[in-house]
Design a protein that fits this description.
Keywords: DNA-binding, Repeat, Transcription. One of its GO terms (biological process) is DNA-templated transcription initiation. It holds the Pfam family TBP. The protein is mainly α. The chain has a domain at about 20-65. Helices cover about 65% and strands about 0% of the residues. The longest helix has about 35 residues, at about 1-35.
Length: about 70
């Protein structure tokens, strides 16, 4: 019984760590996008878009650009 409890606890801890790592990776991606927003605007203009839309990343959890 104790072994089952310990293995369940380890599973919960590892799932939480995976979620934390995903969040950390998303923050890095968002930081890079945020820091280079002006360059992305120019690239979008070059490609014929009307303007760079920061909401393109709104699907990322914890993203400051989300609506």
């Amino acid at each position: 019984m104790l072994f089952v409890f310990l293995s369940d606890h380890q599973q919960i801890v590892s799932e939480r760590r995976v979620a934390e790592m995903r969040y950390e990776i998303q923050n890095v991606v968002v930081s890079v996008v945020y820091d280079t927003e002006l360059d992305l605007e120019r690239l979008a203009d070059f490609l014929g878009e009307t303007r760079y839309d920061p909401n393109i990343f709104s699907g990322v959890q914890g993203c400051p650009f989300s609506r």
